[in-house]
């Protein structure tokens, strides 16, 4: 009989290469950082041709104005309407007007049938602004022959430098998105942690803020 094989145990940070999340930024194991902006979607198909052209030209202008790299992430998930259907059902039961209750019942059945027959997708859009560890300069460990793993500088210094570099870039992108008419905001540290958790734990139940902190440090 073969010996018992010990399972390979890897931490969340090793798997995702995320060292820490602080000051509304993600810090990676090589010393690089990133800010993430969430951008609200628009129903492009409902716009007139003139409005569509205006958004396309404005978006092209945004890209042409950038002097730094960005990453655009489009996250598509199946929409879970269970809670919405339960709200409709509760409203139907509490509705004292028989006609309104019947209308709510018909609408609830329509939504349930639509979800069953078609994939209802939820799309979320993000813009990531990266900060490279090369922008930190050369650390003493690299000068001395640095094959040693770990952050090239103390976390406090990395966050300070990354914040100084990324903040004006973030503000620039937010201004340009506002000109297009798109609502955008920077993700907080907790929102970044939740996004990463959901990406790497698809199908998992909703996690609390306390559990998020534990997950990112185990």
How is this structure best described in words?
The protein has 218 residues and is of the alpha+beta class. The chain has two domains: 12-77 and 124-216, no CATH class; 80-119. 48% of the residues lie in helices and 17% in strands. It is built from eight helices and six strands, in the order αβββαβααβααβαα. Strands 1, 2, 3, 4, 5 and 6 form a six-stranded antiparallel beta sheet that branches. Strand 2 (25-28) and strand 3 (33-39) form a beta hairpin. It is extended. The model is unreliable at 1-11 (pLDDT under 50).
Number of domains: 2
End-to-end distance: 33 Å
Unreliable spans: 1-11
Helix content: 40-55%
Q: What's the Cα radius of gyration?
A: 23 Å
Mean of residue pLDDT? Answer: 80
What proportion strand?
15-25%
Q: Spell the H/E element sequence.
A: HEEEHEHHEHHEHH
Number of strands: 6
- What does the largest sheet look like? 6 strands, antiparallel
Count of alpha/pi helices? 8
Sum up the overall morphology in one term. extended
Label the structural class: alpha+beta
């Amino acid at each position: 009989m073969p010996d018992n094989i010990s399972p390979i145990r890897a931490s969340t940070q090793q798997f995702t290469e995320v060292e820490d999340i602080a000051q509304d930024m993600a810090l990676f194991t090589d010393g690089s950082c990133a800010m993430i902006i969430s951008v609200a979607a628009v129903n492009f198909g409902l716009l007139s041709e003139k409005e569509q052209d205006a958004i396309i030209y404005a978006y092209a202008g945004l890209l042409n104005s950038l002097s730094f790299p960005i990453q655009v992430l489009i996250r598509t998930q199946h929409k879970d309407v269970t809670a919405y259907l339960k709200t409709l059902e509760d409203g139907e039961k509490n509705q004292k007007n028989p006609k309104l209750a019947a209308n709510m019942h018909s609408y609830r059945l329509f939504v349930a049938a639509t979800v069953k027959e078609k994939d209802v997708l939820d799309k979320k859009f993000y813009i990531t602004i990266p900060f490279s560890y090369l922008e930190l300069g050369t650390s003493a460990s690299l000068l001395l022959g640095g094959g040693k793993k770990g952050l090239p500088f103390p976390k406090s210094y990395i966050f300070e430098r990354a914040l100084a570099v990324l903040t004006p870039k973030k503000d620039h992108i937010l201004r340009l998105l506002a000109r297009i008419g798109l609502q955008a905001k920077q993700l907080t540290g907790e929102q970044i942690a939740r996004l990463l958790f959901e990406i790497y734990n698809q199908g998992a139940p909703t996690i609390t803020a306390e559990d998020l902190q534990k997950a990112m440090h185990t």
